[in-house]
């Protein structure tokens, strides 16, 4: 089958990104009826509906979802190719990442990046939700996982490795000769799966049932605060709390680090791979991480 008409694909790209015929029409400078006509032509050509038109929302059909990602990527590449060479002169780099990575590692480095690139506005947003690049105003995302997200370019940044950490005052009140001695202390967010992994690798019998309520925090940053205050032992990434370890406000009683094969990755749609702002930010992140290893 030959490639469908560009006008129909352009309309499909806009509706698939916005999931709205009205917003797609506004973006394209067309009437809603004209956009609907182009989508109908495309659906007739393919012999299958691409959208489910409900009273208050528009959703992609299974076939529509299958075609949306490559179509959006293709138009992203075209937009990139035809953008002005100086398009980065006044531009915004919007970054989405999880709160812990932002607060413990990224936020205090972004000022340096922005100073190095004064014509580039930088916006940081934090969320545990997975970014939908087709619908959200986000340029890049830094997420945890294995880097196998379909349709996205992924660059490995650092491994996710955890170990127990606590305040020196709490450690001084207890003998921590072996990993099993940690079970005598309050464990912050005991249901965190890294506790079971770390204890198993340390050959400690770690019962699933705790027997009493525990303190559960929403992020590693909150757990670290509780550990600093002496309320218990937190399962944390030493890489994120190197300053606290260096000044002695937190201690790491055992050298063992545990991983579940996951890492932090810089991700963005493949069609954006040549954007100057993304290339600059990727190089900056990799340089910062390389400097940590020295």
UniProtKB/TrEMBL annotation:
GO terms for biological process: DNA-templated transcription. It holds the Pfam family LysR_substrate. SUPFAM superfamilies: Periplasmic binding protein-like II, Winged helix' DNA-binding domain. GO terms for molecular function: DNA-binding transcription factor activity; sequence-specific DNA binding. Residues 4-61 form the HTH lysR-type domain. The keyword Nucleus does not apply. Belongs to the LysR transcriptional regulatory family. This is LysR family transcriptional regulator. The lineage of its organism: Bacteria, Pseudomonadati, Pseudomonadota, Alphaproteobacteria, Rhodobacterales.
